[in-house]
């Protein structure tokens, strides 16, 4: 299984939605709460090419994007291959 990381913050509806999608696919992920660990926010911004909003999703170090980007990949049928799930 690839390494999945998601930068989040509490009370973020988009974060909850992105995690729900990953959970539905049975994927384990590392959640990095940038409110609980504020020193990690600059790391997220750098890795995400300057994007400051959460969530930011990474699969095997590759920046996937935010919630909408992750759902768009799923709708296009490309997310399962990146996650190593599905038929």
Describe this structure in words.
By secondary structure, the chain is α+β, with helices and mostly antiparallel strands. It has a single domain, classed as Glutaredoxin, CATH 3.40.30. Helix content is 38%, strand content 20%. It is built from 4 helices and 4 strands; from the N terminus they run βαβαββαα. Strands 2-1-3-4 form a 4-stranded mixed beta sheet, with helices on both faces. α1 (13-24) links the parallel β1 (4-8) and β2 (30-33). It is globular and about 35 Å long. The model has no long low-confidence stretch (mean pLDDT 96).
In short:
Residues 4-64 form the Glutaredoxin domain. Has a glutathione-disulfide oxidoreductase activity in the presence of NADPH and glutathione reductase. Reduces low molecular weight disulfides and proteins. The protein is an alpha+beta fold and 87 residues long.
- Spans of 5+ residues with little confidence (pLDDT < 50)? none
CATH architecture: 3-Layer(aba) Sandwich
- Pairing-aware structural class of the strands and helices? alpha+beta
CATH superfamily: Glutaredoxin
Shape: globular
CATH class: Alpha Beta
- Computed Rg: 12 Å
Number of domains: 1
Strand fraction = 15-25%
User: End-to-end distance, in Å?
Assistant: 14 Å
Order of helices and strands: EHEHEEHH
**CATH topology call:** Glutaredoxin
What labels would you give this structure?
87 residues; Glutaredoxin
Secondary-structure blueprint of this entry?
Layout lengths: L3 E5 L4 H12 L5 E4 L7 H7 L8 E4 L2 E4 L1 H9 L3 H5 L4
């Amino acid at each position: 299984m690839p390494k999945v990381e998601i930068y989040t913050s509490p009370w973020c509806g988009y974060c909850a939605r992105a995690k729900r999608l990953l959970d539905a696919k049975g994927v384990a992920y590392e959640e990095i709460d940038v409110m609980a660990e504020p020193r990690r926010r600059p790391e997220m911004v750098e890795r995400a090419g300057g994007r400051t909003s959460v969530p930011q999703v990474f699969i095997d170090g590759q920046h996937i994007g935010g919630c909408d980007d992750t759902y768009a990949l799923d709708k296009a049928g490309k997310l399962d291959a990146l996650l190593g799930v599905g038929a």
